[in-house]
Every structure is written in structure tokens, then in C-alpha cells.
Amino acid sequence: MGTGKRGLIATAVTVIGAVAVLAAPGTAFAAPSPTPSPTASPTAVTNKDIEAVRKQLDALYHDAAVATDAYNAAEEKAEQQSAQIVALARKIVKGQEKLAKLKARAGAAAAAQYRSYGLSDEAQLMLSDDPQEFLDSTGRVLQGQRATKALIAELTRTQQDLKQYAADASAQWTRLEANRKARATAKKKVEQRIAAAEKLESQLEAKEKKRLAELEEQAAHQAQTAWLDSGVLKEISGKASEAGKTAVAYATTQIGKPYEWGAEGPDSYDCSGLTSQAWASAGKPIPRTSQEQWKQLKHVDVKDMRPGDLIIYFDDASHVAMYLGDGAIVHAPRPGRTVTIAGAGSMPILGVVRPDA
Fold it and tell me: What is the strand order of the sheet 319-325 is part of?
């Protein structure tokens, strides 16, 4: 292979790195440094070149994962706000109907009072054929006055409620629009990062892509081996709960289905789409994103984890997988991959959470 090919790869790495403003430093996996083949020509694309590509791909896909979480969060909030706006609209309609009825009652009461009590009390007593009936009617007048005051108070409360409902709906619309913009921004970022990664990979020939896959597998294996060598697996002996078993069964049934950012089944998943749907199938709804799963679910020590627990990866909680036991996880890795089983220690572990604590 000539210097033009190697230069193309190097240029691609440099250009992609320049245009991608990464959300987090570092790479997704450990970075082994394979020794170049002694038979490689000076102008060939070496393992060092491919390793540079691997690191850049890790960074791009990590950034895409962060943006995907932002997109999913904005999507979830937008759905919640839309539902709240619908609920407020229903309250406003009911409030307007109630207000119309109250106004009709108030009008009828005012008209009746005008017809019946236009004369003074003294004149009505003198003209009455039955003084007792007049006294009884006077009591009813007092009751009517109290009822009128209550009616006016209810009218006032209903008007205030309608005003508050309208203000709440307006505020929800404002937040909804903000989340729609955040979702659009995150979507654009995801698409840019994935496109950059795909462009970078497209610069490789078939044999180089094979070497890239080997390096990715080697990096994951080295990380998993280091994790197991720490002795952590000897301390892990937790057994799955009934809900955990259901969640594990769901997740493992999805093996082989493609990763798709923003997807939550049934045909494709992103990482948190898989874990949230698995636990929903077990009757335990959990937050949609890996970051919110980390924030809201109960944290447990790695040594205490059991099958069904969720392992959160990277310092920014941008990836999540489900623990299966025996040091293995099931997860949706990244674009271009499918739901698969991997080593629990193949990526940097932030912590473990338990949906059914």
C-alpha cells in the first residue's frame, strides 16, 4: 500500500478529530499498543495507525452516546409536558363549563330576589295574608343571602383556578418548546458524531476493518481480564430477584437486534432503551436514560450486585448494561453493533444501581 493510503487515514483521523468537539476526554476502552508486524512495509497502514482510528472512533461514539442521552431526556420531558398541557386544557374546559353554570345560577338568584323583594320588609309584612309565612320567607331570604355569598365565593375561586390553569399551561408550553429545541440540538449532534465515525471507518479497507475489530476485541478483553484479576467476581454472589429474572429474560431475548439511538424496541434499542424496557416488562418502570437511572435508582456496591442490576459506565454515566452474572453483561453497545453479551469489566465502571431495591 502506498503513502497515499496511509496519508488518507492519517488525514481522516486529524480532520475528524478537529471537527468533533468531544464531550468527555479519554477513550471508551483501555488502549493497548500492539506491536506492528515485522513484515509490514514502511508505507503500510500499521497497527499504530489502526489504533489511532480505534481511539478516535471510541471518542466519537462516546460523544454520540452522551448526545443520545440528552435527546432521550428531552424527548421524555416533552412527552410529560404534552400530557400535562392536555390535562390542563381539560381542567380549563371543565372550569369554563362550571363558571358558566355558576353565572347562570347567580343571574337567576339575582332576578328572583329582584322580583320577590323589591318592597321593603315592612311593606311586605303589611300586605301579607299570613304573617307566619312572611317570617318563614324572611328566614329563607337570610338563607338565600348566605347561599348568594357562597355562590359569589365559588365564582371567584373558579375564576382564579381558570387563571392559574391558563398560566400553568403557558409555562408548560414554554418549557415544551425549550425541550423541543434541546431535542433538535441533541439529534443534530448525534447524527454528526455518527456520520463522522462512519466516514472515518469508510477510509479503511476490508483487511484494515478486520484489524480494527481485532483491536477493539483485544482492548475489551484486556479490560475484562484486569477487572476479573482484581478478584471482584469472588465477592459477587447475589441471586436475582423474581423481577430481576424477568428483566434478564427480556434483555437476553433481544440479543442480535440492532442498536439504534433513541430506540426502545421492539425491533432495535439504544443502551438505556434496552434496560428501561427490560425492567418495564418486569413491572418496574425506571427512568429512560442512563444518567437518570444513575441519579434516581438505588446504588449498590459492585460486590453486592446480582443479575438484573444495571451497571453504569464512564464518569458521565453515558452507558448502561444489565448484569447477567458470572462477570457478564447484556447491552446495546453502539451504532453498527447489535445487542450482545460482553464482559462486565470491559468498560470503565462508574457504579451499579438496583431497579427493584
Answer: 298-300, 349-354, 310-313, 319-325, 328-331, 340-343
